[in-house]
Design a protein that fits this description.
The complex is a heterodimer of chains A (about 400) and B (about 375). The longest helix of chain A is centred in the last third of the chain and has 32 residues, at about 275-310. The two termini of chain A are about 40 Å apart. In chain A, about 45% of the residues lie in helices and about 15% in strands. Chain A is an alpha+beta fold and about 400 residues long. With about 375 residues, chain B is α+β, with helices and mostly antiparallel strands. Chain B contains twelve helices and ten strands. Chain B has helices at about 5-25, 25-35, 40-50, 70-80, 85-100, 105-115, 230-265, 275-305, 310-335, 340, 350-360, 365-375; strands spanning about 120-125, 140-145, 145-160, 165-170, 180-190, 195-200, 205-220, 220-225, 265-270, 270. In chain B, the strands form three sheets. In chain B, strands 1-4-5-8 form a four-stranded mixed β-sheet, covered by helices on one side. Chain B has a four-stranded antiparallel β-sheet with strand order 2-3-7-6, with no helix packed on it. In chain B, helix 7 runs antiparallel to helix 11. Chain B is globular. The two termini of chain B are about 30 Å apart. The chains are: A alpha+beta (about 400), B alpha+beta (about 375). The interface between A and B is large, with 48 and 47 residues.
Chain lengths: ~400, ~375
């Protein structure tokens, strides 16, 4: 048992922090106006080789260890860096192309992902394929050397600014769902692609906030060069994207930011108003959040550690995800108790960035958290699905029929 | 970063598991609950020869010089089978107090006696309010011509009725801050004026009330410095809380294993009940609970072993979490088993009742959250 990082790991952490403090100036943060993506920031990362930080060296990667990747992601989250332009491409899709792509595909896409030029959105879910993702209905029919795509995608984060979409489509019938899907890299500027934003609760806080999109595909022509991993292998390619760092440390860091802010807020109240029954009640709730936050950090660290040992985390990832997202809901609830009436306020300018530089948590932060938190337990696997996974894969309970 | 135990620790764990699986079936647990002594002297001697009683003591006293992580591992295996024994009061409470407060002779005499399995000790701290806080220490020790005279009552003293020696926490000076003026006294349990009565509880633990009526203890019976006993005691109780967490993880894991086994075998409506989502989700929550408890406990144990500045805070975090967790898991353990889980015939009831004790001992959830809050400046 050892919960320390090595001196080399700490040195890398310092290096990442130095970069972020250099690039994420207050002016730059303001220019973002609440956006979580920035091609400019991404290309600075690309110059340092950090978009391919986790990739094997023969693909221009740095082959950083899982613990280093964890540290890297942790610092990105701590500084609230706008990583969404590159996050999916760098951490997931680039890896898939390296593992399953043809030489031609690797030559065409890898350098552009590594430099940060190319942004890729996730085009998986559909109206009829949410938790049951294998129930994808979008069809891809062969036509000469191309495929013609028809269908609809939903909940596609990043489609409104990305060049490409990572898309699952049905390329055969008569087989089980899992054996009839293929992965395509779809040029989102192709004729026949229509993208419509889907405003959600986060949009109430401001236009620059994250939202998802619907994509309508009408006779979209996709060259077969853009089929990744072979026909009808899409489900398995997607399922094998396990080697990138999957600790989910970002939400852990985010929760910690709020909880530390709530602790500071109670200290403020104690100083201004002295001891009170209200303070006693609130401090017990905040302490409970702190306990759960420390647990959540350990559950996420465990994932990266398992990967560093060559193990493949399975239900353990579900445990970490379930715990941290349900914790986020409790954080919002306690935050609302502490800020009271004011935790409905929204500034007309939207949030400023640089959480670490902000002096104290504001009521507005809690208002925004209240808005965003319901999606935490739904996206990337609902809490219910994760409980099924934990029960079935973690405890061997029989699959539900 | 390393989430694994060392090879030695894994060996300690697996040998303890094998030993206790054989030596402590639930029939023994039930028998010892009825038994007046409440422990098996034969098993105690065998625990001594396994080296367990010296787990956290230096080699010069016959110990194996283990750390708090090793202690937790042992406790986990003991908690798994609900081993009824005076291990915790002897080794973790009295033993560690002597280790940190005793002089050379006291350490040699008592710690060697403990590791050999020759001595049973306990610690008398709680009084009428039942909370381990300095202001509640009112049993007084008045100085009189080279001796101290002790008067007062202690409650919930584990295994006092079989103890050879008792470490008693008494107040020697008033008019100071609460945590000053507390002194630790070591005494033979048969000293004149000591009256020990067993308490009957729902949990099956052997707890006693001790009346001190003009008990005369020479100055040489003091452990450490007069009036400065609380500093030592505070650390002993913090580590005891971590040790109890180890026990709770072991118990909770047993409960989870039993209900998963049951859920796979029990057929209702033509299918194993483990295929129903409600049951699956309860089991999933239990695994999350047990895993979480394990991580925060071993983190706390590691911090204590490293003497890290945040060790006291995280010890309180772990105790608060594990106490609640263990009761939740035990309750769901009965729930998933249905009617059978509620009977005395099934072993689940043993874990449910013991969970109640673990939540309270060395500070309950409220106490530890209060303590953590204070350490966070609230």
């Amino acid at each position: 048992m050892d919960f320390k990082f090595s001196p080399e790991e700490n040195a890398f952490r310092d290096e990442v922090r130095e970069f972020l403090e250099d690039v994420l100036t207050p002016e730059f943060q303001e220019s973002l106006g609440g956006r979580t993506w920035s091609k400019e920031f991404t290309m600075e990362m690309g110059k340092k080789g950090w978009l391919s930080l986790a990739w094997p060296e023969e693909y221009g990667g740095q082959a950083r260890t899982h613990m280093e990747q964890l540290i890297f992601n942790e610092e990105m989250a701590r500084y609230n860096a706008p990583i969404e332009w590159h996050r999916r491409a760098s951490q997931q899709h680039g890896f898939a192309i390296i593992l399953f792509g043809t030489e031609e595909q690797k030559k065409k896409f890898i350098p552009k992902i590594a430099s940060g030029e190319m942004s890729i959105a996730n085009c998986m879910s559909e109206p009829e394929a949410g938790s049951d993702l294998a129930n994808v209905q979008t069809r891809a029919v062969q036509d000469g050397g191309d495929y013609i795509l028809n269908g609809q995608k939903r909940w596609t984060s990043g489609a409104h600014y990305s060049d490409y979409g990572w898309l699952l489509a049905k390329t055969s019938t008569g087989e089980s769902n899992h054996k009839s899907l293929s992965l395509f890299l779809l040029d989102l500027h192709s004729p026949g692609v229509e993208i419509r934003p889907v405003p959600d609760l986060r949009s109430v806080a401001g236009a620059n906030f994250e939202h998802t999109n619907e994509i309508f595909l009408t006779d979209v022509r996709v060259p077969s060069l853009y089929l990744i991993g072979g026909a009808n292998r899409g489900w398995y390619v997607n399922a094998t994207l396990m080697d990138f760092e999957r600790s989910g440390i970002e939400t852990v860091v985010r929760n910690e930011f709020y909880i530390n802010g709530l602790i500071d807020k109670l200290r403020e109240i104690k100083e201004k108003e002295g001891r009170s029954e209200r303070l006693t009640l609130l401090k017990h709730k905040v302490v409970q959040l702190k306990i759960e936050s420390d647990i959540s950090r350990l559950l996420s660290y465990r994932i990266a550690w398992m990967q560093s040992q060559g193990q493949v985390p399975n239900y353990q990832t579900s445990i970490a995800k379930l715990f941290k997202t349900e914790l986020a809901r409790r954080v919002a609830a306690v935050g609302m108790e502490i800020f009271g009436y004011f935790s409905q306020i929204l500034s007309s300018l939207g949030p400023d960035r640089g959480l670490d530089q902000r002096p104290s948590l504001t009521a507005m932060d809690i208002s925004e958290l209240y808005l965003s938190v319901p999606s935490a337990t739904i996206a990337q696997g609902t809490s219910e699905i994760h409980r099924n996974i934990i029960a079935q894969r973690g405890l061997g309970l029989p699959r539900i029929r | 970063m390393n989430f694994d135990f060392s090879e030695e620790q894994n060996i300690l764990k697996s040998s303890a598991r094998k030993f206790l699986e054989k030596e402590c079936p639930s029939a023994l647990v039930r028998a010892l609950e009825e038994d007046e002594k409440g422990y098996s002297p034969d098993l105690w001697r065998r625990m001594a020869s396994m080296g367990w009683l010296g787990a956290v003591f230096p080699e010069e006293f016959g110990g194996t010089a283990g750390n708090i992580v090793d202690l937790c591992l042992l406790q986990e295996e003991m908690g798994r089978v609900l081993l009824p024994s005076p291990f915790l009061p002897t080794v973790v409470l009295a033993g560690r107090t002597i280790l940190h407060a005793g002089n050379k002779d006291q350490k040699h005499e008592f710690l060697t006696g403990i590791t050999r399995g020759d001595l049973i000790l306990t610690l008398a701290i709680l009084e009428a309010e039942g909370r381990p806080i300095p202001s509640q220490i009112r049993l007084n020790a008045t100085y009189e011509k080279g001796d101290y005279i002790l008067n007062g009552v202690k409650y919930f003293v584990p295994y006092a009725h079989v103890a050879d020696f008792i470490v008693c926490v008494a107040r020697t000076e008033t008019g100071m801050k609460d945590q000053e003026g507390i002194t630790l006294f070591m005494m033979n349990a048969k000293s004149p004026g000591i009256k020990i009565e067993s308490l009957k509880t729902i949990t099956g633990e052997k707890l006693c009330q001790i009346r001190f009526d003009g008990v005369r203890i020479p100055e040489s019976g003091i452990l450490g410095e007069p009036n400065h006993g609380w500093t030592i005691l505070h650390e002993v109780l913090s580590v005891a809380a971590i040790a109890e967490c180890g026990w709770m993880i072991g118990s909770a894991r047993w409960v989870l294993e039993r209900v998963v086994e049951y859920a796979k075998e029990r057929i209702q409506f033509g299918v194993p009940i483990g295929s129903f989502q409600a049951i699956q989700h309860k089991c999933a929550d239990m695994l999350v609970d047990v895993d979480s408890a394990s991580f925060i406990t071993y983190y706390a144990a590691w911090l204590a072993s490293e003497n890290d500045p945040s060790k006291t805070l995280v010890a309180s975090e772990a105790k608060a979490w594990c106490g609640d967790m263990n009761i939740r898991v035990a309750q769901e353990g009965i729930q998933i088993m249905g009617g059978i889980g509620f009977t005395l015939e099934h072993d689940m009831q043993l874990y449910y009742r013991r969970a109640r004790a673990s939540e309270t001992v060395f500070g309950d959830g409220h106490y530890h959250r209060e303590k953590a809050a204070a350490l966070l400046g609230l």
